[in-house]
Design brief:
Elements lengths: L7 H20 L8 E9 L2 E5 L5 E6 L11 E6 L4 E7 L5 E5 L5 E6 L3 E6 L7 H14 L2 E6 L10 H13 L3 E4 L8 H8 L3 E6 L5 H8 L25 E4 L5 E4 L13 H7 L4 H4 L16 H7 L5 H13 L9
Helix pairs in contact: 2-6, 2-9
Length: 333
């Protein structure tokens, strides 16, 4: 059954009601049992876990027409009984990490984040294409991306060189790279420092050890951790929904489900360039305003690549992403 589309007037009235509920919640004392502010720490279909101001977590139902509520959202909710409640409105968010699904719809992953920890490991093999797509998403969102290499204890003379060859390009353009190991706890102090006082999301392929790293940082939490598939060296999906955790030293993190693809179909060419920080300042220097950065004369980006001022590998990645923007196989119901 197709969901009924709201009219402009109905959408405006819903937004006004949500703003009114938010103001009322701010004016009322916490614990009054009427309207209260809360934080979404997990979302499950038509329900969500909401953390109240006193730290207690409530399982809440979602009222209709609230939009796509996601982990990290700030909401207004009402207590229903001793353990449950209902969400009545959603606060405006600073940002929203989204990705399109196979049906062409945008799906929110997290809200109100400060940085994305793009997690990779020797196994499964890291792919620069996926890393670059995360970087494009982070740059367009205005959040700080950090490259986090987990399972550093598995690095050897055989596999260290290709990983280092990938990472050197990112270091050269100013990205922070952290090495850590959930198994040996090496690099965890640096990681804790990077996470302090920020809301971070761990993102990356399944099996790179995001949940294992969070378990090291939060030994008291019961976090589901899966083994790497030996047959295909690809991780199994162990996190089925995004969840927010608080660090004792300060800061929060969101553990997101592992994904092997991160489509950018919703972006245009200029937005992709925005996500390649070394290409962005050159894009306006091309001879032609509508330059596609292919074989056009006077292309500032191509000239920089030819002179070795820009990584040829990164430029190739940019071209692949641009070429894939219209290459979408959308499923139908």
């Amino acid at each position: 059954m197709t969901k009924r589309k709201l009219s402009h007037q109905q959408s405006r009235r819903i937004a006004q009601n949500q703003q009114r509920r938010s103001r009322q919640a701010s004016e009322q004392p916490q614990g009054s049992g009427i309207d209260e502010h809360g934080l979404v720490i997990a979302r499950f279909s038509k329900q969500a876990d909401i953390e109240a101001a006193d730290g207690k977590v409530w399982r809440c139902h979602l009222r209709a027409n609230l939009g796509d509520i996601v982990t990290g959202d700030r909401v207004v909710w009402q207590q229903h009984d001793e353990s449950s409640g209902v969400i009545v409105s959603v606060e405006p968010c600073r940002n929203r990490l989204q990705r399109p699904d196979s049906y062409g719809k945008m799906r929110a992953v997290a809200a109100n984040i400060d940085q994305v920890l793009i997690t990779l490991a020797p196994e499964p093999e890291p792919h620069t294409g996926l890393i670059d797509r995360y970087l494009v998403a982070a740059e367009n969102l205005g959040v700080t991306p950090v490259l986090l290499v987990n399972k550093s204890d598995l690095l050897s003379s055989e596999n260290e060189h290709p990983i280092e060859k990938q990472l050197i390009h990112y270091r050269n353009i100013g990205y922070n790279v952290i090495r850590a190991s959930a198994k040996t706890a090496s690099g965890m102090d640096q990681l804790k420092h990077e996470l302090k006082s920020k809301i971070s999301i761990f993102a990356g392929q399944s099996g790179v050890g995001k949940s294992s790293l969070i378990q090291q940082l939060l030994p008291g939490e019961d976090i589901k951790i899966g083994e790497l598939s030996e047959q295909v060296a690809k991780g199994r999906h162990t996190t089925t929904h995004s969840r927010l955790y608080h660090f004792p030293e300060g800061g929060d993190c969101i553990d997101s489900p592992g994904i092997r693809e991160f489509g950018l179909w919703h972006l245009n060419k200029d937005e992709v360039i925005q996500g390649f920080v070394e290409l962005k300042p050159l894009a306006g220097q091309c001879k032609f305003r509508d330059c596609n950065h292919e074989q056009e004369p006077g292309c500032a980006i191509n000239t920089a690549v030819e002179k070795g001022q820009i990584s040829a590998e990164r430029f190739s990645s940019f071209r692949r992403i641009i070429g894939s923007l219209d290459d979408v196989d959308i499923k139908t119901f």
